[in-house]
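wait is this the right file?? whatever heres the structure
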């Protein structure tokens, strides 16, 4: 099915009263802000960025060595970036899926799958240990075929996943619609290794856990500059400085303090809607009684989940890049994308026509050309970074943190010896070439979706080179 690009009046009415705010953050459970840094301090480890990667880095560092002094610096508030704006998919995969992992690190893919499963187990264990109320559930994720030609693709994905021991199941049209009823769903592929979550509450729970273990957290404290010293790195902020023996850089899609990293990451804006709670009759009409995550397999794809209180999150499709890597608050509100999402929602679930959306928001994602996190070191090993999660950072961020800590230790470990860790993605071209190349790629992906998945010469060339662009 090709989705319409012209919203109907009923779709526009459905978003007429939305709050332009992430649903997850519109929560009375939101904790009080930590104070900003207002003096000069020293620390063993400074973590820059209070999203999932930074929170996990601080927490794991203190758990490994309670005597290590850890400082966490966040420019805004914990969960104010991608960690509080995402779709709530907590995947076991570290490689953005089996096929992407197999095409890049085939020999070590079984190891990466094992590490990914262990990582998801570790997330669940931490949630239990610190009693974090974040609606965590291993409900699985279903890949959806909306076009006839995609059915065979899903069958093949399931067979490959099973070869690697991933619990996958193919669902034909009858099985799929018995589970979730939509006239656009032709088949599905269930992966039970994934979980759904309230991401903001997970971040807030990790924040509380960090504070409980003695992490010194400073919010509203952007790091404006770094200066390497003989045995430390000096981090400058508006009202104080931090001299750190080691630094973990976890800024992801935001402008990196290491300028060269901007070659490897493209900040892409993604948009999301959240419905009002469904009535029993509405939910019965679509038969979606579980909390499975959904994601169609178009190039410009939609993702969705059913929240614990019976709302449908609906996001994706548009992946908007703004020239010169622009990141700014006003870009989070894009009425055209919200209208398009609403139209596609009602094409997918026509029985829900009349349902209203309560929240609409957008946010930036750190896309890299290999679709998966990458790492590196700087300042003679005193700084490590992790970035490029490309939309799958909720789960992989904990693994990203573990690798950063191993890199900072200076010792060889199972993680530091992975080819996935040793390699890095192909860089994106700088401006003025970046914008036209990305926009032509987006146009090409749209044309493929309109033409039974047939990829033009440009996309085939990118495929051959192992390069991509994704949200």
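ok assuming it is, sequence goes like this
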């Amino acid at each position: 099915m090709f989705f319409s690009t012209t919203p109907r009046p009923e779709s526009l009415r459905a978003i007429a009263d939305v709050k332009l705010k992430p649903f997850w953050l519109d929560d009375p459970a939101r904790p009080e802000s930590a104070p900003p840094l207002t003096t000069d301090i020293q620390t063993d480890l400074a973590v820059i960025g209070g999203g999932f990667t930074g929170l996990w880095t601080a927490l794991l560092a203190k758990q490994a060595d309670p005597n290590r002094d850890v400082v966490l610096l966040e420019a805004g508030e914990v969960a104010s970036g991608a960690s509080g704006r995402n779709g709530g998919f907590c995947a076991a995969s570290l490689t953005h899926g089996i096929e992407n992992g197999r095409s890049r690190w085939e020999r070590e893919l079984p190891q990466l799958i094992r590490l990914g499963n262990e990582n998801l187990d570790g997330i669940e264990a931490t949630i239990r240990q610190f009693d974090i109320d974040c609606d965590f559930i291993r409900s699985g994720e279903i890949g959806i075929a909306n076009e006839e030609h995609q059915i065979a693709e899903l069958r093949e994905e399931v067979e490959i996943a099973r070869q690697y021991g991933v619990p996958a199941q193919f669902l034909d049209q009858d099985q799929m619609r018995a589970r979730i009823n939509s006239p656009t769903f032709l088949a599905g592929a269930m992966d039970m290794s994934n979980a759904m979550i309230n991401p903001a509450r997970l971040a807030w729970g990790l924040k509380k856990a960090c504070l409980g273990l003695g992490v010194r957290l400073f919010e509203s404290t952007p790091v404006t500059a770094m200066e390497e010293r003989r045995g430390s790195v000096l981090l400058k902020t508006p009202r104080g400085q931090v001299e750190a023996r080691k630094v973990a850089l976890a800024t992801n899609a935001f402008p990196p303090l290491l300028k060269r990293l901007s070659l490897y990451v493209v900040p892409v804006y993604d948009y999301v809607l959240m419905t009002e709670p469904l009535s029993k009759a509405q939910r019965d009409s679509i038969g979606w009684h579980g909390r499975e995550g959904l994601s169609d397999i178009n190039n410009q794809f939609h993702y969705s989940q059913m929240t614990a209180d019976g709302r449908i999150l609906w996001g994706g499709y548009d992946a908007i890049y703004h020239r010169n890597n622009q990141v700014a608050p006003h870009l989070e509100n894009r009425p055209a994308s919200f209208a398009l999402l609403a139209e596609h929602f009602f094409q997918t679930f026509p029985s829900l026509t009349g349902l209203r959306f309560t929240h609409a928001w957008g946010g930036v994602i750190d896309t890299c050309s290999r679709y998966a996190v990458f790492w590196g070191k700087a300042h003679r090993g005193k700084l490590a970074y992790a970035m490029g999660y490309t939309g799958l950072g909720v789960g992989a961020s904990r693994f990203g943190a573990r690798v950063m800590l191993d890199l900072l230790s200076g010792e060889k470990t199972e993680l530091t010896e992975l080819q996935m860790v040793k390699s890095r993605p192909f860089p994106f071209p700088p401006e003025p070439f970046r914008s036209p190349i990305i926009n032509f790629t987006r146009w090409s992906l749209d044309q493929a979706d309109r033409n039974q998945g047939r990829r033009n010469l440009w996309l085939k060339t990118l495929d051959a080179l192992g390069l991509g662009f994704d949200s």
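The chain has a mean pLDDT of 96. so i think its the right one actually
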